């Protein structure tokens, strides 16, 4: 009997296997992917994100201090003081919003580079920073525009809600306070739901070259049916890095308090006391920013893997990636980007079977398997009578009862017997019994 080869899992040329990913694979590879291209992920992305966040934080502090230091020259309770106070608040809020928008724009550029790097790492390709920037550069304004639009919508919505809550509290304190608490609690699940539904907008813009509205529609459709797993990954990563940030910054805070107490045991503030507070606060902030930067990179990596997993499940992206890897390894150079193929394609639901290729038909244009490459499905042999031609001679024995037995052959006629005493054909002598 012919022994058919056993089914083997899909190959893993890159950081993940080319098949639909489980919850644990996405979560684990989001952290381990940092080792794939550390020069880009831990060098460029971490450095830029940390430096920009520190500069932005210092800029916000400087704007607020400059706006409120003018009040030192005025007497409280006067009309001029109230006018300057209102102007200082407006300047502080406006400057903080402007700096936050700039920080968001730079962060989304860094996330775009991370998304491009992870997408290539899935197919075992390590690109340079220049090559990654060449991929992100054509759609950079769409990324920035989407981020600014989303930030402005969130700020406007929060401003309307806060203004309404303040007005209700001033008019009806008890009812307004209860309604404000209810709105705050209702905003939490709404924010989580929108976070999941819009999570894949940056990958769609970068990898599919989609417009802002098209990317929003793509993210909305790809996350359909994958809400809870995606939410779990996002919440786990955010919670983990929140605890890490607190655990790392706590020793610096305790050290700052201890040094301040040693320099000023009586509690009177002096130069050494303020220097210790400033140095300790800066160190704590630096460590916190580093942890937050790593968290942003890991979240961007997880977002890329979630995007790949959703397209594998809904559009059979794993088949396109496998075909791309096979042709690339075979020496073909002029290859089309697999992430731009069959966008929006719908495949049959995957079912349990002896092999992944039995789950749904291969995509259009995929290479047909060579004859005899895959084992036949269970129960296919023996074939019904009259459906398949006879087996080739000597290939392998047919199953019992598969074919009718061959027709009986006619035996050759026996030589005629010569009676005793009769003359033979060879001569005239009679036959004599020995």
Number of E-state strands? 0
Morphology: elongated
Strand proportion: under 5%
Tally of helical runs? 11
Given as residue ranges, the uncertain stretches (5+ residues, pLDDT < 50) are 352-359, 424-429
Mean pLDDT: 77
Q: Structural class of the secondary structure composition?
A: mainly alpha
Order of helices and strands: HHHHHHHHHHH
Helix content: 55-70%
Evaluate the radius of gyration: 38 Å
Spatial separation of the terminal alpha carbons: 56 Å
Sketch the major β-sheet. Answer: none
Question: How does this structure look, described?
Answer:
The protein is an all-alpha fold and 434 residues long. It has helices spanning 23-32, 38-68, 79-122, 129-136, 140-171, 173-197, 201-208, 212-222, 227-263, 271-315, 317-329. Helix 2 (38-68) runs antiparallel to helix 3 (79-122), helix 2 (38-68) crosses helix 10 (271-315) and helix 9 packs antiparallel against helix 10. The longest helix is centred in the last third of the chain and has 45 residues, at 271-315. It is elongated, with a radius of gyration of 38 Å. The two termini are 56 Å apart.
Question: How are the SSEs placed, and which strands pair?
Answer:
Blueprint: H1 23-32, H2 38-68, H3 79-122, H4 129-136, H5 140-171, H6 173-197, H7 201-208, H8 212-222, H9 227-263, H10 271-315, H11 317-329
């Amino acid at each position: 009997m012919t022994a058919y080869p056993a089914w083997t899992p899909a190959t893993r040329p890159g950081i993940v296997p080319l098949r639909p990913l489980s919850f644990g694979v996405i979560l684990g590879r989001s952290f381990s992917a940092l080792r794939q291209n550390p020069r880009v992920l831990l060098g460029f992305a971490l450095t830029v994100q940390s430096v920009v966040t520190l500069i932005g934080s210092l800029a916000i502090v400087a704007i607020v201090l400059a706006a409120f230091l003018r009040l030192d020259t005025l007497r409280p309770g006067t009309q001029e003081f109230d006018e300057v106070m209102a102007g200082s608040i407006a300047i502080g809020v406006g400057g903080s919003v402007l700096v936050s928008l700039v920080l968001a724009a730079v962060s989304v550029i860094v996330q775009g580079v991370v998304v491009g790097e992870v997408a290539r790492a899935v197919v075992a390709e390590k690109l340079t920073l220049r090559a990654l920037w060449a991929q992100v550069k054509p759609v950079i304004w769409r990324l920035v525009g989407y981020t600014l639009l989303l930030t402005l919508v969130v700020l406007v919505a929060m401003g309307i809600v806060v203004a309404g809550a303040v007005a209700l509290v001033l008019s009806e304190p008890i009812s307004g306070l209860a309604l404000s608490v209810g709105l705050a609690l209702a905003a939490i699940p709404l924010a989580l739901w929108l976070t999941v539904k819009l999570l894949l907008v940056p990958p769609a813009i970068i990898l599919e070259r989609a417009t802002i509205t098209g990317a929003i529609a793509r993210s909305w459709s790809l996350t359909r049916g994958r809400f809870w797993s995606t939410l779990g990954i996002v919440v786990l990563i955010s919670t983990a890095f929140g605890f890490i940030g607190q655990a790392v910054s706590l020793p610096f805070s305790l050290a700052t308090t201890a040094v301040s107490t040693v320099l000023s045991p009586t509690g009177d503030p002096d130069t050494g006391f303020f220097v210790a507070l400033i140095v300790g606060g800066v160190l704590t902030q630096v460590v916190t920013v580093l942890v937050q930067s790593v968290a942003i990179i890991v979240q961007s990596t997880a977002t890329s893997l979630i995007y790949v997993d959703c397209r594998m499940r809904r559009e059979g992206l794993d088949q396109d990636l496998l075909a791309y890897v096979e042709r690339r390894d075979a020496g073909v150079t002029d290859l089309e980007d697999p992430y731009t193929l069959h966008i929006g394609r719908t495949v049959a639901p995957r079912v349990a079977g002896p092999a992944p290729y039995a789950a749904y038909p291969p995509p259009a244009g995929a290479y047909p398997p060579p004859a005899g490459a895959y084992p036949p499905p269970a129960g296919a042999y023996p074939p019904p009578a009259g459906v398949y031609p006879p087996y080739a001679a000597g290939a392998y024995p047919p199953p019992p009862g598969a074919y009718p037995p061959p027709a009986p052959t006619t035996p050759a006629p026996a030589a005629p017997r010569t009676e005793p005493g009769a003359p033979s054909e060879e001569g005239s002598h009679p036959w004599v019994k020995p």
